[in-house]
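Suppose you are handed only two things: the residues of a chain and a line of SMILES describing nicotinamide-adenine-dinucleotide. What would the bound structure be? This form records exactly that question and the answer produced for it, so the two can be stored side by side and reused later without any lookup.

QUESTION INPUTS
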Amino acid sequence: MVKRLQGKSAIITGGASGMGAAEARAFAAEGAHVTIADIASGEALAEELGARFHPLDVTDADQWQSLVAAAEEAYGSVDILVNNAGIVTWGGVADLDEAAFRRVLEVNTVGTFLGMQAVTPAMERASGGSIINIGSTSAFVGGPRAVAYTASKWAVRGMTKAAALELAPKGIRVNAVHPGVIQTPMSAAAGDRTSGTPPLGRLGTPADVAAVVVHLASDESAFTTGADHVVDGGRIAGHP
Ligand SMILES: NC(=O)c1ccc[n+]([C@@H]2O[C@H](COP(=O)([O-])OP(=O)(O)OC[C@H]3O[C@@H](n4cnc5c(N)ncnc54)[C@H](O)[C@@H]3O)[C@@H](O)[C@H]2O)c1
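ANSWER OUTPUT
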């Protein structure tokens, strides 16, 4: 049976940890040529998966250029980008300092913008592609001490729609995946801020999110662009 991402070249940012690592595993299992791009080391995971690791700080446009060039040279094209790298900082309007606010927007929002900008020419050369931006349920509701994170993820959700319209004529689809609380190093560090069980009766796993990302990366979702995909066990569906 042909694998769902057979022969496609995919870049996954933040691919060394958490959900990005789960996406790298799922993509490799579906036949993709994976480039793991992270500010932290993903060498061991890349070796395990037969993938490539490329160091990347998503806030640096020059690093994006060399990443895309390297992926194109290694695999002949860039067909898929998962803008997954992200950070969270807890603090409210009253107390969060400006530098911390700017840093969250720099990584989560500007990083996602730079990624879309960097892969667009390569995807045009490949006659199309699929970009998946990882937002959050914090792109639909606000968290009381998550003012920067909430701002950054609403922006990711909005940019996804703007980019989808702009890039549709080039055959490039742009969609967003919005996880709820998922068991990763990030949510573990958040501790009791993310407690409580969603309506489906369990917390989410990185594999739950990776399954949706694979679908959006593949040609199964060929007529889907500019769309929000919430993966939260029903948590923001309504009042419990
Ligand atoms: N865990 C959750 O509950 C949850 C919920 C909703 C959304 N998200 C989002 O999902 C994505 C992945 O989160 P996770 O929980 O797997 O987090 P994680 O902390 O386990 O992994 C994030 C990865 O991003 C990398 N990274 C951070 N800054 C970077 C930078 N400047 N350049 C390149 N790489 C960088 C880290 O090194 C790390 O490998 C993030 O965008 C996060 O906001 C997470």
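WHAT STANDS OUT: The beta strands are 9-13, 33-38, 52-55, 80-83, 129-134, 172-179, 228-231. The first strand starts at residue 9 and ends at 13.
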